[in-house]
Input
Amino acid sequence: MDAKTIENTTQLLINLAITYGPKALVGLTFLVAGILVARWVGNAVMKMLQKRELEPPVRLLMVRVVRLLVVLLFMLMAMQNLGIELLPLLAGLGVAGVGIGLALQGVLQNIVAGLTIIFTKPFRVGEYLELLGVQGEVTQIELFSTTLVHADKSRIVIPNRKIVGEILHNYGRIRQLELLVGVAYDTDLNAALTAVRQVVEANVRVLKDFPPVIGVSTLADSSINLSVRPWVKVPDYGPAGAEINQAIVDRFRAANISIPFPQREIRILSGAA
Output
């Protein structure tokens, strides 16, 4: 490359810098200002929404939308300052948006389903769900997915499009234990039921506002089965069941109430000589 070419290139770059440099600097200033203003406006909107009874995902979604709109407004101002024609650009973005929408069809379905979940509120954070063969406590509701935490502390991430339209069992924030204990047929049922009721009422995890269901469930082959179904909070579901079972065994042993094991009576009849 000779000296003249280098000189021409240098002069061209200088001319471009003189012509577009101030505009580019102003555009960059617009972008930086847009980000700062969007952050400030988002924080102000979040403080305002925290005073209202809205779900956390709804507040987060509204704050993100407000921030995005502010940034887009400043981007349009920056592009207009650079002399970019906005109408052809918007037309091109519309055509490109159709292709992107087809390519990201599953993602868009998740977003629409997420908005449906957020605004219709079939469940909320902290409630216990069972759906699609899985169950757990809801910890996050986002645009793309919903996260459950199982009793074993594992996380279950479900795409929102899989949730909308499916049968969903929402336990809420409390669950009912389904315990079963058998007693012998010669047991005083009133004494056994009283002992069970005392055990349930003494457990601190059992909710006092919901009367437990305690009674005879089935007449089995070797025992009379008693159903014990108290209400507890979702985190207490596992510990409460273990504590009540152990307390019932201790109380039955102290009261000489037998818990029979399965048994069969076999009779051998000899035939005629």
In short: The CA atoms of residues 19 and 142 lie 46 Å apart.
